[in-house]
Amino acid sequence: MKSKLLAAATCAAVSFAASAAMAQDDGVTNGGPQQFYAKKGADSGAFAKPFPGAVNKGAFNMKAWKYGPAGDMPAGSTAPKLWNPAMIKLRNGGQLFSATVNSDSTPEQYCAQANVETNDFIWTELQHAAGTWHDIDNMWKACPHAHAVPGVRIPVENEMDEQHATDRGALVVVIPTVRTPEEAQRSANWVFFPPLGHRSAGSNVTGTYWNEMAGGQLRATYNDNLILINMIETLDGIQNIDKIASVKGLTGLFAASSDLGNFSGYRQGTPDYERLINIVHDATLKHHIALCGPSAWATRPDFNCFQGGPPGAGRGPGGAGRGRGGRGRGDAAAAPAAAQ
User: Fold this and answer.
1) 154/136 Cα distance (integer angstroms)
2) Are 79 and 73 in contact (CB under 8 A)?
3) How many CA atoms lie within 13 A of 150 on its CB side?
């Protein structure tokens, strides 16, 4: 018992130390070169005039700012550019499958699904389930290096939920009901580090999970490994699909089987419904991004990422199945789902 308590205390201390170090938002270890200090009580004029040797010349202009190399891979680094196994599989032409686990599930239920070898990622359901980020954190940290990487569907694109998702270790983020290119752009802004996005580099546990896999270069490679999926569920999403699909950093579009029926008034298998699915299909081909949908559509041409496991594979231990948030039923001639 004493050895178990000692091990737990040691683990907690290491975790606290790592978290404390990452909590230093400025990321510096000293005061910096004194020749750049502003003189006490005096306006330095920095907004109007750069220091000698600066890359950015003239008065400060955010739109003209040349982004620096601080986040680049060091010269000669042997760290892998891709280390997220789900992204590697997708880039190599494979199909990604998942299991849906509600955000109010137990760590045991989560890990049972995460250890199923046919699951590439876990679709942690936050949009339609009653769990909290505290619940999700407890699930993900119980088995961060299971076969399936952690993923989550949040309720809407926003800085808080996307920052929580990425800070807690998500490698797949799903954004539902994307209607406009502005929403799609916001979804990318909050999951990606600059210059691609606007994600803050504050305190998080992501590094403790993935930095070793990233060869110590998590910050330099993270944007290449995060999978971002936007769900197309409404007629305005269809109307704006070309601009949505063109957002830089977007990994794929999800053709939401139930809600496209819900918002269109047509059932799967009818010409009007299937036209909408093909519009999503065509946009992903044009913009060279993934085409996602319910796993029942795994045999449809060009679909390569799914909510649900491979057809016929079953649900695996734990029985989490699709969860209450499962928009991806894909049942033949399914009636439009009730609004979720």
Assistant:
1) 11
2) yes
3) 27
Q: Where do the domains of the chain lie?
A: 157-307
Q: Which fold has domain 157-307?
A: TIM Barrel (3.20.20)
Give the CB-side neighbour count of residue 196, counting CA atoms within 13 A.
Answer: 21
d(CA 81, CA 88): 10
What's the pLDDT tens digit per position in 122-157?
999 999 999 999 999 999 999 999 999 999 999 999
pLDDT digits (tens, 9 = 90+) for 283-314: 999 999 999 999 999 999 999 999 999 987 65
Distance CA 329, CA 306 (A): 11
- pLDDT single digits (tens) 174-224: 999 999 999 999 999 999 999 999 999 876 787 889 999 999 999 999 999
The CA–CA distances, whole Å, from 12 to 51, 67, 174, 214 equal 44, 37, 31, 23
**CA dist., res. 94 & res. 89, Å (int):** 5
Q: In the sheet that 149-153 helps form, which strands lie side by side, from edge to edge?
A: 98-102, 121-125, 149-153, 172-175, 227-232, 252-255, 290-294, 305-307
**At which residue do the structure tokens 């008034």 appear?**
265
Instruction: Tell me if 107 sits within 8 A of 326, measured CB to CB.
Output: no
In 10 A of CB 36, how many CB atoms? 9
